[in-house]
Amino acid sequence: MSSVSPHTLTAFIGLGSNLESPIAQLKSARLAINALDNVQELAFSSLYASTPMGSQDQPDYVNAVMSVAASLTPLELLYALQAIELEHGRVRGVQRWGARTLDLDVLLYGDQHIDMPELTVPHRGIAERAFVLVPLSDCDADLLIPGKGKLSDLLIKCSIVGLRKLNEDESSS
Questions:
Q1: pTM for the predicted model, two decimal places
Q2: 90 a catalytic residue
């Protein structure tokens, strides 16, 4: 595990994949995130299968959330995650909500509100997406999402249709 300075914040990272062995992609991304300097894993959710957003003419996604202690700036974390995506064959700019080998999103960074061209935190759509909220709850069920409210309240309002927790046999493949 990498070292983390005493000046850290908890960040939550969304992981998703629906191409080229999605479960293996997420497991590999988890290892790569853990290998980053100044980042230490705190929790990792179960894996969930979800129907894709946008075009339904693509495979279902596998999603998870990882919480980390990070002493990077939010943009440093974002750029490190984008480098991991590229290492996993991510092609940017093809189709919004299209199929991809790996998608890593900074969902939350402490209690910060960030609105920059490169990064918006809390992540846009976080409050309406079951494939984010349910695994986020696995990591921290008592989480307060800045500007959105309690995670438990958001979960009550969010439809989980199309979301399925993968069992151990499926997750180990």
A1: 0.92
A2: yes
